[in-house]
Design goal:
The chain is of the alpha/beta class. The protein has a single domain, classed as TIM Barrel, CATH 3.20.20. 37% of the residues lie in helices and 15% in strands. The protein contains 11 helices and 10 strands. Strands 1, 2, 3, 4, 5, 6, 7, 8, 9 and 10 form a 10-stranded mixed beta sheet that branches. A hairpin with a 7-residue loop joins strand 2 and strand 3. Helix 2 packs across helix 3, helix 4 crosses helix 5 and helix 7 packs across helix 8. The radius of gyration is 20 Å and the shape is globular.
Amino acid sequence: MAFPQTRMRRLRASAGLRGLVRETDVNAGQLVLPLFVTETEPTGARGEGQASSSSRQQIATMPGVERLSLSALVEEAREAAELGIAAVMLFGLPAEKDEHGSGAWEEAGVVQLATRAIKQALPELLVITDVCLCEYTSHGHCGVLREDETVDNDATLELLARTAVSHARAGADLVAPSDMMDGRVRAIREELDGEGFPQTPILAYSAKFASAFYGPFREAADSAPAFGDRRGYQMDPANGREAVREALLDVQEGADMVMVKPALAYGDLIREVKRATRLPVAAYNVSGEYAMVKAAAAAGYLDERATVLEILTSLRRAGADTIITYHAKDAAAWLTQPT
């Protein structure tokens, strides 16, 4: 029936009614908090003169996000766990870099040490490790280079697989390859299985775009390419069908979860990837998306809480089962408070 018998506003009249018919939920258990851990004392760390256990360095382009020492990392992870956040995702800043990114797979590497520290202190908190070489290579690219300075896809696969196994050996609950090399999910799955880690899941960065929204992250992780860009291996933002194909290939190679990155401008692809793969889908609410909200809120242009929760709801509505976001701690706290 049409108006006046049909009145859509009837079920919007009170908070109770709106909650009763709400189609999409967001809770802390669906959120993942990315963390940056450094092998050395963070430059300009907060609390100079204090023990390194509390050392933190603010990241200028990402207010509220810090580079953390190992002990500070555990403190941050504990806060996340107490808020009910499902997992942390680790990005490492090594003390030294080389052309091959060998620090990525060292048994005493920064992410390996960080994983062990968190799992010892907080065994129930899930640890996801980013598997890539860009933070460890002297040139900042996500793989080893040929003589012509292009990334050698196949030569990189062995190194990525070695890195994933070192993370699993350290206790990682999930490994997340983000490099966008062809065939890397298969290489990692085979190596994990062969090394006695058949139960370690792979969260594949399947549709990772060469996006303008990554700028603040590259400062945070010290991972900007020394030359060129990553458009030769990350995806063209204009290509939606290709994103679905990438995800399906990762499923065939053994991915347990797939990811769309960035998130905010890619809700259509979150939906399409979800429909095509029928796997759990993660959306990465990336650094530039975070920084835009922070800047607008600081200027008084937006209500930060309302904006963040609306963004997270939109990603869940699009089909994301898991959301990786720098807003995770604030969002988890806000979700427990009445509006």
